[in-house]
Fold these 3 entries.
Entry 1:
Amino acid sequence: MLTNKPRTGYWCECWTQDVTEQEQPALRGSFDAYSAPQADRWVAVALRTISPALDPDASDQAWAWLYQGRVATRHALLRSESCSVTVTQDRTRITWTIRPVLFLPLAHRQGAELPACAHDFKPHATD
């Protein structure tokens, strides 16, 4: 969406981490939401999608958030507070984060002349 003013919204991310290793969490996905319901819905859809494959403890964690935690998350988002939801499956910790952000408008290139150097770029072939 192209606008000329900043717009409030929520930046949502999904991270995974192997809890038995000393490695950094890995970003698996992100989503820009423009309302609190849209942001918590992104997490809810993900949890409902993966819940059949989760072990009983992880499934309980997922459904506890879907039934009780989701309301608290929505209220926190409406107060402009960051939130996270975590489920641990075997050795993998999955964390969804949602934080309020201000989306800045981007300039579009329609009708604009690109600088000459833009035409010099040649993609490299991959091996």
Entry 2:
Amino acid sequence: MTYRRAAIPALAGGLLLTALLWWAGASVNALHLAGTSEVLGGRAAAELQYWLTPWSYDPPDSVRFGAGVSGGIGDAAGTDGSRYLSLYATSMQIRFSAVFAVFMPGALLLVRRLPPVRGRVTAALLAVWAWGLVAGMLAAVLSAPWSIASRGHGSYRFLPQLASASSSGQQITVLAALVAATGTVLAARITTKGAGPLPLGQVPARAARLAATVGTAVVALSLLVLSYQPVAAAIQTVSLSGRLLSEPGDFLRQWLLLGGWSGPAGAPLGDWLLYRVADGLLLAVVWWALRKLPVLLTPATVPAMAAGAVCATVIGLLARQLLQMGLTGADSGMRWGLLQLTGGLGGGVPAALTWGLVAGLLTALTLRAAGGGAGTADATPPGDSLAPAPPATLPDPPATAPAPPTALPDRPAG
């Protein structure tokens, strides 16, 4: 797909994602109405407000309270209070601009290298959906310094506050990104209408399996080693010298850990193993996606493999969280309610971005080193390719030359 055809769906998806998040943030005021708590329930209304507040232009209580205290006495203090409110408005402008600015190039790359034609529609939808979550997380991180400064204590525990901002508002971003991904894929289907089916790439299965295993091992390092509670506790208590970098533990935890688990102490072994199935599901999704990416991408360039690996890690993370939600709901008998169960949905995206990039780069390098790059399709042995082999053609029959005329024997003399 050309850049011109891919730019239209990416633009439409970016505008749709930005508009949906803005509309969700503007809906916070509806939760403050008198009858909302009676209809939804006080607990559900408070949970929805927690989801939507990171995308609302209405300043939270911490900013509003600080501005009111500053503006209570004297004109100078009032000016300071208006500055805090102005900082918060600036942070929201940066956040919505960053959502569009981050989603647009990623969706452009994915739609161009993974066009939603026959055989690739589901993969393209999942990839763009995952990239929408990454765009929402990066937008929150980029706008966090202004949001933190608007609370009046920006220099206090800056990195922990930045870590908290990177994981805020992801629940509503999951839903908005899914709608935006659907719109992007539908628009891409329209722009590619009339285009013939694209052939799958020819990649040796052994090279693809080896590369997928290397990339999955990188993700497993975070999920199985760093996320183990003793190791995670050591990471969270890391401290460096300096005022702004005195407590980077929370920040490192957000960007390095894909989960958290401990031994089966105090719990039946069967229940502990059942929850570990969710971790296995994440690794299985990542391995399968990394194995199929070289075949689905057109072509499997290093940037496309890196972006695809990030999306695969995010999708695996969502699958793990959905399975854990089902297990938790079955154990608690849905006593907590659906909103409480989905509170952790969309978390871990910073770590998925970090380890997904590393996994994608190592997968691409391993694939090339193992002979799975472009131009190796001719050397693929029959029956050992991920893509179906082309139909064999019979050799042309040899051309038969007309037989020379038979010469008659000479007649004897006499």
Entry 3:
Amino acid sequence: MLATCRPPAPRAGIGTLISFALPFAMITLAVWVLMFFVWYLLGIPLRPGTPVR
């Protein structure tokens, strides 16, 4: 990924890559946590034969 960042930003390094990827990772984490809570509140079983609560 760093090689694809180099042409538009020659001084790009690991810090640049992390600073670009971190917001997407945080948004993805928030969406997954939200989906888990919705799943839990709806009472959908985690697998067949196992209750959520």
